[in-house]
Amino acid sequence: MNIKCRKVEIALDYVRTRGEEGGDGPEQDCDTVKLSRVIVFLSDWIQSLLISSAKKVKLDGEQHDVVKACLDARCWEIFKFCLEKSSRLQIPLNFSQKLLQPIQFIARHVLLRLNDSPMHAEESFLTDEGFELFNLMVDCVSLLYGSHNVTSNESLEQWISTVHTVIELVNRIFTESLDSRKAGVLVLQFSCFVLGPFAKFLRIHPTRKSGFSDFVHKLLEPLLQLFGHLRGNRNNPGLTGNLLRSVDEVLSNGVFHPIHIEGFLTLHSSDKYVTAGEGKSKDSKIIVMSYHRHLFEELEKIMTSKKMLALKGVSKLFHLLVKQVRKLRGASMPIEGSSASTVSEGSKQLEHGLFGPRSKMLSMASDINSERDYSLVNLSSEARKS
After folding, report:
1. Which of 183, 189, 215 is nearest to 202 (CA)?
2. Which of 30, 246, 249, 348 is the most exposed place for a label (fewest CB within 10 A)?
3. Which superkingdom is the protein from (predicted)?
4. Is the pTM of this model over 0.85?
5. Which H or E run contains 272?
6. Contacts (Cβ under 8 Å, ≥6 apart) of 100
7. 173-227: pLDDT as tens digits
8. What are the structural domain ranges in the chain?
9. In which band, very low, low, confident or very high, does the pLDDT at 379 lie, cut at 50, 70 and 90?
10. Residues near 315 by Cβ (< 8 Å), separated by ≥ 6?
């Protein structure tokens, strides 16, 4: 047994002993070193161990001893103890900006196990030991983002990378019809615990030009696919409902944050824009293409390739845009059964500013998605008749 394993074993013995003893009050602590200092020390140490292990895999992919720490349920049990005690005793902890790395590592590990398993074989992709590890990690994520406000610690790049892995995992669970099984339900819970804080992060730290592009090109299609899976899913209605709301919030804050809305509403001036390298406009001024157009580029790719599952979410996407505009401008923009005489100024601006240049794309979405839950395209066509 190497030194690190021995330290983990000693720490785990302490954690389990404290758990058996109970008594969280400071007056009941007779240790030479106060419990609060031990909790802070343990938390800092176990975080460094988990993060270094995930980083080691990212660098060379080899299974060193330090790598195994990330897959060691004992490490997550220690971290869970620290989170529970700090929350209960109101002990402030330090949280690394790289905590998403081990979380993403475990999610990718579960996804790889699922990819290597026969279809519909829950037992083979998560053994009892694997389920315990994943369950402990999910508990830690729940405590981390539920009891501790650490959503703003991580970078947007790390969030996008982690969320991409999580969505890929949950989409695979739905594809394999595992969403009603024990491991599948746990994956759905995990995705809620990750997407909720991510939506909050995006609301507080909205994407800028490069961040918007990364979000759209890496997450838009997987999010729309997830919406396609969730729509009409009758298994675990409470859980799928929460997940659907999280998807809505991520899309609303990531794509249609208030700082982006005006840009979408002024896309009617598309003639002024040219992409870098295409040449010059008539007034000899090169204007770099608006970053908002990355959304339409990605949507056109999805529609051209006829990715049916993702296409189910296209009308939902534009419904969210109308909802955001109504919220910001207080415009009365009826969603269903609206006539030309009732379309407000806000709706007309949205129509002329956004849907005019992309009416063909919206028509494609309408033809493919025959459901009528979201009738933004109908609103657009009625406005054109006026």
Report:
1. 215
2. 30
3. Eukaryota
4. no
5. none
6. 154, 158, 159, 161, 162
7. 999 889 988 999 999 999 999 999 999 999 999 998 889 999 999 999 999 999 9
8. 1-94, 97-241, 259-385
9. very low
10. 365, 366, 369, 371, 373, 374, 375, 376, 377
The one-letter amino acid code at 255 reads V
Contact 275/288 with Cβ under 8 angstroms? yes
**pLDDT (mean) for 84-111:** 93
Cβ neighbourhood burial of 272 (10 Å; 0-12, 13-18, 19+): exposed
Report pLDDT for 383. Answer: 36
Which tokens go with 18?
A: 């404290």
Helices (H), 22-147: 35-60, 65-68, 73-89, 100-115, 122-125, 128-146
Closest C-alpha among 197, 51, 77, 57 to residue 135: 77
The pLDDT of residue 54 = 66
What's the chain's length in residues?
A: 386
188-209 core/surface letters (b: 16 or more CB in 10 A; e: else):
bbbbbbbbbbbbbbbbebbbee
Please say whether the beta carbons of 274 and 280 come within 8 A.
Answer: yes
What's the confidence (pLDDT) of residue 338? 41
Specify the pLDDT at position 357: 44
CA neighbor of 195 nearest in space, from 136, 231, 248: 248
Half-sphere exposure of 255 (CA within 13 A, CB side): 29
CA dist 330 and 310 (Å) reads: 30
Question: Are the C-beta atoms of 351 and 383 separated by less than 8 Å?
Answer: yes
In a 10 Å sphere around its CB, with 0-12 CB exposed, 13-18 middle and 19+ buried, how is residue 185 labelled?
middle
Question: What CA–CA distance (Å, rounded) separates 203 from 245?
Answer: 14
